[in-house]
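FAQ: What does a ligand-bound record look like?

Like this one, built around zinc ion:
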Amino acid sequence: MLRRDLLATMAGLGTATVLGTVPAPLAAEEAKIPTIAGPDPATKTPSFKAPPGSVDTHTHIFGPASTYPFSPTRPYTPPDASLEMFRALHAKIGVERAVIVNATVHGTDNRVVTDAIAQSNGNYKGVANIKAAMSDADLAALGKAGICACRFAFLRRLGGVGDMKVFRTLVDRVAAIGWHVDIYLEAGTIQEFVPILKALPVTYVIDHMGTISAAKGIDDAEFKALLDLQAGDDRCWVKITGPERASAGAPFHDAVPFARKLIDNAPDRVIWGTDWPHPNVKIMPNDGDLVDLIPLYAPDAAVQRKLLVSNPERLFKFEPRS
Ligand SMILES: [Zn+2]
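The answer part, i.e. the structure of the complex:
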């Protein structure tokens, strides 16, 4: 795809952070019914014991909608996945720290994230959804509340309109207050995004291993483009998340070589997360099984510690545990 075609296509793409107009509100009846599945409630206790201070860097909290109403223009309706469920998940998998990424369903109302951070004794940080109408004081207040980044999801299924000028303006504004940016790409668009990402004045994190498909193989041009970008630009970080999105099926071992290669390629710029409660997945994983993939991704204990503890501490400015 030529770059001008990409940008034209993106005019029809949605973003988590609002880059333009948003779709019409849902009808009241339609609005109450979950349109996606909730997580597997029977989280297995993993065999792998995560090192102390490990951080799950990609998770969401949904509602409860009675306290934190979903956006009327959301692209899907999830079942509630509350802070209480979130805490139970992390107790079960033995991970005490987390980064809550505000989901598209909460629009640019970030209270569901900042309220959880406020009750976490420093164990949670957040990634917000923002919009151009927010003032510098609004952004500063989010930063004070534990937000370290904002997210841009260039995905068709999340609806809305993308405007690259607004994108760049927002990136410049958050760069000025020390945030990084989180980038969720549509599968098959990494190559087109490389020049856009390389030109960013700030650290950027690519979600879900670049939204690759394991079926395309380790020599796929998209995956090679991601590896080249990651090796050649020290502002590029990659999230080792979403094996269930890349894989043909459980136990997701076909995604392991991709994770392993990304970790080996830049062991100081990779972070791990569950993506609980797994919105919009074809195959619902069990989070205990996802934790047990970690030693397959990174057999070496020192590398595991980078992936799980020291890298996220640095990126999200957690209190160092080392
Ligand atoms: Zn997610």
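Follow-up question: can I read anything off the structure? Yes, for example: Confidence is low (pLDDT under 50) at residues 1-14.
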